[in-house]
Amino acid sequence: MEILTGVEAAQAYAERTKRQEETLARHMAAGVVFELLDGVIIEPDVVIAPGAVILPGVILRGKTEIEEGCVIGPNALISNSRIGKNCVINASQVYDSVVEAGASVGPFSHIRPQSHIGPEVHIGDFVEVKNSTIGEKTSVSHLTYIGDSDVGRGCNFGCGVVTVNYDGEKKNRTTVGDYCFVGCNSNLVAPVTLGDGAYTAAGSTITKDVPADALAVARARQENKESWAQKKLEAYKEKKKK
User: Fold this and answer.
1) CDD domains, per this entry (predicted)?
2) pLDDT by residue (tens digit) across 213-235?
């Protein structure tokens, strides 16, 4: 890429700014709502339906399509993706994917290429989805990685769930049926399948298929050692006195 300096750089910047202003004016005239134009960048091939709301700091690239009723931003980047009606994309990034009607993404989520987010799905804060399909009304609320997976409808993922998709040589897929409940801090080691209605207990590392309607528990049993901490606490207090 050519690096421009001095007068040439200033001229190129002025031309880009003019084209961007023309693009924004065209969308405003068509009925797109901009709360504020600060930091908004929209490339020429982007399609935005009338009534969609674009907040500050939004970048829309490539052949992105935003349907009516959407609220995009603040601080969102969407590239070559289709966002269905009445979606919310809040402070997140979406690449080469589809987000269906009524879904919400963010804040601070990352939808990587070849992902399909179904209708009314909730993708919450600090969630990463890659090359995966997530079914209608499934909730993935926080701190979760879903990669190379096929997830059914009506599922709930607790905080800290990881699909363990890479074995050091190749990527493997995880399949989660409809209405499954994946407990907090569960690891789903692919390739693995959870049948419809299956549950995994919090803290479990799942390495075998879980039948429909079954509960999988894969963790050590808790053992309490009576009075064990008392000596530690006494030593700690003595140390603090010095």
Assistant:
1) LbH_GlmU_C (cd03353)
2) 999 999 999 999 998 899 889 88
